[in-house]
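User: Could you check the structure of this?
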Amino acid sequence: YARERLPAFVVTHYDTPEVQHWLHEAAREAGLVSASEQEMIDLLIGWIDSDRKSTALKALQGMIWAEGYQGADFQAHIYEDAARGLQKWAANGLRLYVYSSGSVPAQKLLFGNTAAGDLTSLFSGYFDTETGAKRESASYARIAEAIGLPASAILFLSDIAEELDAAHDAGMQTILLARDSRGCPANSRHRCVVGFDAIDPSLI
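Assistant: Sure, the predicted structure tokens are below.
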């Protein structure tokens, strides 16, 4: 959705301060001293195609997604067991946080427009790559500090082993979510489940 609409979005919003800020950040990240509109569009499309975890790109994508949500072009997908688990844990008084390569505004848009309804009230906070890269343990140490809990009291869930390794190295407890047909790997250093129904945070 964002890839298809990014060229027109950049052209029509090029002079707005927020878009200018993130275009400058993208150019700086790419090592460009100056670039035309088309050069920036080509750069960002290339980053989308390579799934680059760029904070600037994610911020711009989030602005485009916002227009899609507002226009009811789509809803955010969430697994039924994930929505059910998050609602149950929040009702039980657990503090829930999101850490994603998507920008914080994009995260709020996603969880505010899911097929299960607006889930934003379930979360106590959001983190994105401005906190740091998701495969670096220092990022998780910063999150623990921001939350105000020892890392050992925090459970981190992901489907990416390298992210879990980084969280584990920072002292967090970890669970690998393996939904694909391959299931849980035999040699995982992390506890592994195939869905949220198998997780009981009170036992962690």
